[in-house]
Write a structure and sequence with these properties.
The chain folds into 2 domains: 2-181 and 367-389, Rossmann fold (3-Layer(aba) Sandwich); 192-362, Rossmann fold (3-Layer(aba) Sandwich). It is built from 16 helices and 13 strands. The protein has helices at 17-31, 55-58, 75-83, 123-126, 128-132, 136-149, 158-168, 192-202, 221-231, 252-259, 274-283, 298-305, 316-322, 334-346, 348-362, 367-389, and strands spanning 2-6, 37-43, 64-69, 99-102, 114-119, 152-155, 175-177, 208-212, 239-244, 266-270, 286-289, 310-313, 327-329. The strands form 2 sheets. A 7-stranded parallel sheet has the order 3-2-1-4-5-6-7, sandwiched between helices. Strands 10-9-8-11-12-13 form a 6-stranded parallel sheet, with helices on both faces. Strand 12 (310-313), helix 13 and strand 13 (327-329) form a beta-alpha-beta unit. It is globular and about 65 Å long.
């Protein structure tokens, strides 16, 4: 079988959730037994992007073939250039392909080949702030079109799958739930030299609460900061560390911390590498995820895998992910957040129990399993489509 993948997430230095999933799954497929031929479909004009980087695909084995193509210079091609591939993505179709899979929610306009896409969350439909953002209506139209045209929609959680089915009335045979895995770097084994480096570089305290990810509204960083301001008087040595891909000094959150008079209790770390992030998890007293909307909640799983106790919002997708391995609070209740954080800070034994449960829970998620399940779902889709064609 010949499986074509959208190679776009593999040729950028800008790594987000889609890129992480794509690279980890492709890495697993490149190291396992070869049962299929793989084609990475890439646009020539993506090389013009300032974050363009081929170092990942340059090291893939021979059963990963690259197909570079130039968008047509017709009206559709000009629109694609003007608005970006994610909005109007066109691609050639090779009749030898059995299926084309996208690691994101958008799909090329393909004909005569099975297609599959990955939905990480339905924020563009269900999160009011995302719906109001610039270009949201156009993005919703593109994603809706992709979901309706897809032979198979892959969701990263049961909650996301339920959201897709509720919004689009897809039959269960067109859906597959394949959770993310955890990068092997996220383990409880500390790197002492890296710990010292981070402590010197960021003046890290011995006792801190860690929040991971850039400052977007649904992460509720302001509410968590307000909750922590209630905890700080009881914890003179406690600090809060924000780690994400963001210039924090220019963020509203930074200004809020200054206005609240607690800037000296905050540490802001910009774009940590995975090895740094893993050590930040290991050394944190606890990790907090206050999101009001999550498709998966990778930071919760990464923290658990590193042996860090977690407090998180009582979202369905996070309960699905963590079950009894974390302490929950109401995402929109400052008092609930503060009480949960204070309880975990005070109760060492309960934190230790959550660490044990978290390590066990994190062990259920691997990229190898995700890759195997994806290939199985793609095979089933092709066989089902073949059977309908010949029925």
């Amino acid at each position: 079988m010949i499986i074509a993948f959208d190679g776009t997430p593999l040729v950028t230095r800008n790594i987000t959730g889609i890129e992480q999933r794509a690279r980890n799954i492709i890495t697993e497929l490149s190291s396992g037994a070869v049962h299929h031929e793989f084609v990475l479909v890439l646009r020539q004009d993506i090389a013009e992007d300032r974050d363009f980087d081929t170092s990942f695909i340059d090291n893939l084995p021979a059963h990963f073939r690259q197909m570079w193509w130039t968008p047509p210079l017709n009206f559709s091609g000009r629109l694609a250039r003007a608005f970006g591939q994610s909005l109007i993505p066109f691609s050639p179709t090779d009749p030898s392909w059995n299926i084309f899979h996208s690691f994101g929610p958008t799909l090329p306009m393909l004909h005569g080949v099975c297609t599959s896409n990955t939905v990480h969350d339905m924020a563009h439909e269900l999160d009011i702030e995302v719906r109001r953002s610039s270009g949201a209506a156009r993005k919703r139209h593109t994603i809706r079109s992709a979901i309706r045209r897809s032979n198979l929609v892959v969701a990263v959680s049961r909650q996301t799958a339920a959201d897709v089915q509720a919004l689009f009335q897809l039959s269960s045979d067109r859906m597959a739930t394949i959770p993310n895995g955890i990068d092997p770097i996220f383990t409880p084994v500390s790197d002492v030299s890296l710990r010292r480096l981070l402590q010197d570089k960021y003046q890290l305290p011995r006792r801190y609460v860690l929040l991971v990810g850039s400052d977007i509204r649904r992460r509720n960083y302001r509410l968590v900061l307000e909750a922590l301001s209630r905890v700080f008087p009881h914890e003179p040595a406690l600090r809060v560390v924000f780690a994400g891909r963001q210039q924090w000094i220019h963020s509203d959150l930074y200004q809020k911390a200054r206005a609240m008079g607690i800037l000296d209790r905050c540490v802001f770390i910009e774009s940590p590498g995975d090895d740094e992030l893993a050590q930040l998890y290991r050394d944190a007293t606890l990790t907090v995820c206050g999101s009001s909307f999550e498709g998966f909640g990778l930071s919760v799983l990464e923290a658990a895998a590193c042996g860090c106790a977690v407090a998180c919002s009582d979202m369905v997708s996070l309960r699905e992910l963590a079950e009894d391995a974390v302490a929950y609070f109401a995402h929109d209740d400052t008092e609930s957040i503060a009480e949960t954080i204070k309880m975990l800070l005070d109760d060492v034994d309960y934190r230790k129990l959550l660490v044990v449960r978290g390590l066990r829970r994190a062990g259920l998620y691997s990229w190898r399993t995700a890759a195997q399940r994806l290939i199985g779902a793609l095979e089933n889709t092709v066989h089902s489509a073949h059977g309908r064609t010949h029925a």
